[in-house]
Amino acid sequence: MSDISVDREGEHVAVVRLRRPPNNFFDTVLLEELATAYEELAAGTWCRAIVLSSEGKHFCAGLDFEGNSGQDIAALYRAALRLFAAPLPVVAAVQGAAIGGGCGLALSADFRVATAGSRFSVNFSQLGFHHGFALTVTLPAAVGQQHAADLLYTGRRVGGAEALQIGLCDQIVGQDDLVEKASDHAAAIARSGPLAVRAIRATLRRGLVERARQAMDLECAEQLRLRVTADFAEGVRASAERREPTFSGS
Questions:
Q1: How far is CA 221 from CA 40, 100, 102, 234, in A?
Q2: Of 156, 150, 125, 113, nearest to 234 (Cα)?
Q3: Domains of the chain (ranges, CATH numbers)
Q4: Given CB 3.0 to 4.6 Å as the disulfide criterion, which of 19, 170, 190, 217 pairs with 48?
Q5: Which is more confident, 2 or 142?
Q6: Pairing status of strand 90-94 against strand 49-54
Q7: For residue 68, is pLDDT > 80?
Q8: Confidence (pTM)
Q9: Nearest Cα to 15, choosing from 101, 83, 87, 91?
Q10: What is residue 24's three-state secondary structure?
Q11: pLDDT value at position 67?
């Protein structure tokens, strides 16, 4: 697992790190490795909670559309579904940016600890594209329907303070303390009865895997439809060139 590391933090917490700095773009291989790490930790006896973190400047910038234009989206989402199905609670430590599918990855966790400098964006509309990673389900659950619509329609960026206010994250801490504070949160969970926590989590998330699967099926279909449009090509070019896109509606 060259792009994933797993370290023990204290008695019952594992820190799982993405290792593709600075942006930690994902693809199917990375998500499969991450899901395997979750599953192996859950199959053991010592780990009771997971901290998901990243090396480098940013938590995760999602899929690199410019560099992975041929990515099989359906395969990507099959790997992502395994993250939703894994039984251990996850606390995401979000430094820098969680963009697009990277925001979806953060929202697949139970909790998100961020910094004042963190920023979240579901920027798909700014690429002329449809959102994915089950954001149809997870984003409204976190921030409410109106905030979710605003963020998805505009693709705007949300800083740490606003993210805390609307529910995109659960705690704001100092940059230097991010993983430590996320680990403290995970350790507090791990001090509870492990069988009880798994049972409570399963009850709270009942139906989530199936809802996520259905959402990603629909999201994938829309992404495949829009992938061949002039607007998507323009959105990707504009993003690479760091300029405002000019969409034609075609």
A1: 31, 17, 20, 20
A2: 125
A3: 4-174 (3.90.226.10)
A4: 190
A5: 142
A6: parallel
A7: no
A8: 0.96
A9: 91
A10: coil
A11: 74
Sheet holding 158-159, edge to edge: 97-99, 119-121, 158-159
Output the pLDDT for position 206.
Answer: 97
Quick: pLDDT tens for 125-179.
999 999 999 999 999 999 999 999 999 999 999 999 999 999 999 999 999 999 9
CA dihedral sign of residues 124, 21, 178, 81: positive
Q: Give the position of tokens 């895997």.
A: 209
Cβ atoms 173, 115 nearer than 8 A: yes
Instruction: Pull the structure tokens for residue 123.
Output: 């920027």
Alpha helices per DSSP H over the chain: 28-43, 73-85, 101-108, 135-143, 145-154, 160-166, 178-190, 194-204, 208-226, 230-240
Decide: 131 and 140 in contact? Cβ < 8 Å.
no
Query: What 3-state class would DSSP assign to 123?
Result: helix
Structure-token pair, residue 186: 């995970």
Beta bridge partners of 158: 120
Looking at 22-31, 45-54, 59-68, 125-134, which range is the least confident one? 59-68
Return the amino acid letter for 107.
L
Alpha-carbon torsion 170, 139, 137, 106, what sign? negative
Q: How many CA atoms lie within 13 A of 182 on its CB side?
A: 31
5 has which bridge partners?
17
pLDDT digits (tens, 9 = 90+) for 97-124: 999 999 999 999 999 999 999 999 999 9
